[in-house]
Amino acid sequence: MISDASKMAMVALACMLGILVGFKVSSSMKSNPANADLVSDAAEQRLLLEEEASNQIASSKSADTGPISAQPPKWQLVIEKAAPIHFIHIRNAFQNLGFVETNDTNDDWKLLWSFRDPFYAHHPSFETIKAMKPGQKINQLPGSGWFTYKWYLSEVNPKLDCLPLTFQLPKNYEAFVKFAKEHEGQYDWVRKNEGHKGVQAVTPESEAVANIKNNTLVQQLIRPVLISGRSWDFGIYVAITSSHPFRAYVYNDIVLRFCPAQYVDPVVDPANVNAYVVGDHYTAPWEFPPAKKHLDQGKNYMQALTAVLKEQGHDVEDLIPQLKVRILELLLKMQPKLKGVSDGYTHGSSSFFAMYRFDFMLDQQLRPYIMEVNLSPNLSSTRHKPLATLFSNVMRDLLRLIGFGPEGAHRQIEMSPETQQKLSAKDLAIASDDICNACVEMDCSSTQVNCVARCPACRTPAQQQAILETISEHVHEGTNWSRIYPIPEDIKGQAAAYGKQQAPVGDLNGMLDAWVTAACRKDSSWC
User: Which of 164, 195, 237, 316 shows its CA 20 to 30 Å from the CA of 96?
Assistant: First the structure.
């Protein structure tokens, strides 16, 4: 008898193909009738997978080896001193996908979720991370501290327009005073400590600045566009699924927060911090009438924000592309560091992924500024219960994006190399057979065509794997994630206009970017 688990595995594999190929093909046909010729390829791919599943189940039955993938996948949660109540939505997301939590570091776990940066010798998971096996993942990227710690981020900001000007005190006190005098009347300033607290408006000549002894940041004051007289900010979730080749996504909803008091110019009344700083006791959007009315209509937080800004007469058509480009500007600046540190681990970047929250303010011209980047963004709705839905969705969609959803990697039957090769040839060949044949005849070195990007026969296993992973993420980014790198067509114009983008380092990036560009010509869903 074929076990229920084996039957479910076969169905999951067949369904996975329907999602990987059928969904993307059918959606692209609706938007581009010229892609109708892809249907036959999709059908053939489905048959290949169904045949492979059938063969494996048959061999399992004849060998009497028991059900395939009978053991549920395991995961670990490392929270150190944080309260367990703050991780309810994280635990629920794993439980809903069939994961079993384990505390045994020697166990055969699939994913380790660490609340804090684990890449230092005294972290309880450090030795576990050094001994990670192929296929195991952790939700942190080594090197992230270069842009999530404010002190290090301040060293980047003179080179990037997406960050407010910042000076480190007392280290750069003289440089700060000199700059302030040279640009007198052009900037106002706030003081921040190394953490995320202690924000207060200051002047360059004040004793509060001159007498600073401990590490402190003095930052350009962003005068915000007000909503019904309130200052506000918002956070965008950003996922990096690989530092090399570099792949990054943004979530389509936000955390939106308003100051609890009406705005007062910080220079006039610096002590009235609640009027210009969004702190822990902020006003939630469902408590703020201008946003609440749109939430009550079924809009998400991002949609409610843009609706409110439009009501105030602002042009928001380019706002979301601008935000994506600002995020990309910082990430591409940091990518060499992320890759360099990840390369020091046994399996390189394949062991790591991460989700951050980029906190933004918009100035009075709707120009976006990244105020900070949160390494382990809050996913607890203990204080604000209505955020439970957003946080649950973010976790569910993140796990799907990296391949751990219901149709993800841990439920797939292992494909034979022959079947994977056939599928790769059909899935990934975005050039016609005659072009690929010509490439092979020229040892894949044609100057007219990027043979490596367009022909599977010209690729190394690492290049092929990079494309397979990108396809999997492309399928799942429909669950509320949008790709920002490789750069999609909808923000290429914005990115070129800023002129700040740099190509990520690593030999796989150029190949993957060329592949996605070519895939866009054949299937508009890649654009």
Answer: 237
Residue keyed to tokens 């009315």: 293
Q: What backbone torsions phi and psi does residue 6 show, to the nearest 5 degrees?
A: -65, -40
Specify the DSSP class assigned to residue 115: S
- Helices 319-342 + 489-498 axis angle, to 10: 80
Residues 430/433/435/438 CA torsion (nearest 10 deg): 140
Residue reference for tokens 């096996």? 133
Residue 16 CB coordination number (10 Å): 22
- Structural contact between residues 73 and 409, judged by C-beta atoms closer than 8 angstroms: no
Looking at the chain, how many residues does it have? 527
Q: Residue with structure tokens 């549920």?
A: 72
3-state secondary structure of 229: coil
Read out DSSP for 359-403?
Answer: EEEEBTT--EEEEEEESS-----SS-GGGHHHHHHHHHHHHHHTT
Q: Where are the beta strands (DSSP E) in 68-199?
A: 74-78, 100-101, 111-114, 137-138, 166-169, 189-193
**pLDDT tens digits along 347-400:** 889 999 999 999 999 999 999 999 999 999 999 999 999 999 999 999 999 999
Give strand pairing partners of 201: 190
Return d(Cα 222, Cα 216) in angstroms, integer: 18
**What DSSP character marks residue 18?**
I
Q: Is the Cβ–Cβ distance between 402 and 241 less than 8 Å? A: yes
Nearest to 404 by CA among 108, 102, 95, 117: 95
Does the pTM surpass 0.85? The reply is no
Give CA–CA dist 57/72, Å, rounded.
18
Strand-pairing partners, residue 246, are 243
Which conformational region is residue 168 in: left (phi greater than 0), alpha (psi within -120 to 50 degrees), or beta? beta
CA dist 41 and 430 (Å) reads: 12
Q: In this predicted model, what pLDDT tens digit does every residue of 402-415 receive, in sequence order?
A: 988 764 444 333 44
Q: At what angle do helices 4-17 and 38-63 cross, to 10 degrees?
A: 160
In three-state secondary structure terms, 73 is: coil
Lowest mean pLDDT among 31-35, 91-95, 122-126: 31-35
CA distance 263 to 255: 20
Q: What span, in angstroms and rounded, lies between the C-alpha atoms of 295 and 390?
A: 13
SS3 content of the chain, % helix, strand, coil (to 5): 45, 15, 35
Q: What is the DSSP string of 78-97?
A: E-TTS-GGGGHHHHHHHHHT
Per-residue pLDDT at 250 exceeds 70: yes
Contact criterion met (CB below 8 Å) for 73 and 96: no
Between the two ends of the chain, the Cα-to-Cα distance in Å is: 47
